[in-house]
Amino acid sequence: MDVQENIVNKVAQSGLMTLDPASFFPEGERVIYDIKDNLFMGLILKEKDFREFIKVHDWSQYAGKLVAVTCTADAIVPAWAYMLLASRLTPYAREVVFGNEEVLETVLFLKNIDAHNFEQYRDQRIVLKGCGDVDVPVSAYVELTKRLSPIAKSLMFGEPCSTVPIYKRKD
User: Fold this and answer.
1) 64 lies in the same domain as 115
2) Domain span at 137
3) Residue 122 and residue 117: Cα distance in Å, rounded?
4) What are phi and psi of 103, to 5 degrees?
């Protein structure tokens, strides 16, 4: 007698919607502008020299790029110096932030999340995908949780076959 068992995909029948936070990954070349290269003896920012650099530097090389402005030297850099850099970068760069690479990634993810319409997730059981090829900052998971908790029926972290419960609405 030939007995054929039907394989049932319980994950597909569960009604879970998977949201991959990596889908909010902003494409584009990242550039770190370190003001330490403008410091005299690695310690002091000379206003006259810095203003001259600002005038003659080729800012077009940052066209379309995602730029983080920082200072990795142990120096006191006045706020106006970062403001001057931002004023020169803004016409060219797609984005300019103050901070390191991690801050840049956080800002970029949060902007993309902010622009997303989450209405499609209303009253749904959502799984925020937990692993993938893109390094998603924890801040993106926190922001997605903030956005989804008020509208979702439930929110889980991981993969549909193995989830960690995060939130469940009390009906």
Assistant:
1) no
2) 10-26+107-168
3) 11
4) -65, -45
The tally of domains found in the chain comes to 2
Q: Which residues of 120-156 are buried (b: 16+ CB within 10 A; e: fewer)?
A: ebeebbbbbbbeeeeebbebbbebbbeebeebbbbbb
Distance CA 75, CA 39 (A): 8
Q: What does the alpha-carbon distance between residue 96 and residue 87 come to, in Å, rounded to a whole number?
A: 10
Residues 34 and 88 in one domain: yes
**Residues 6+ away with beta carbon under 8 Å from 114:** none
The three-point CA angle 28-33-39 to 5° equals 175
CA distance 117 to 121: 9
84 and 116 part of one domain = no
Q: What is the pLDDT of residues 91-118, one digit of tens each?
A: 999 999 999 999 999 999 999 999 999 9
- 22 and 38 co-located in one domain: no
Overall pTM surpassing 0.90 (yes/no): no
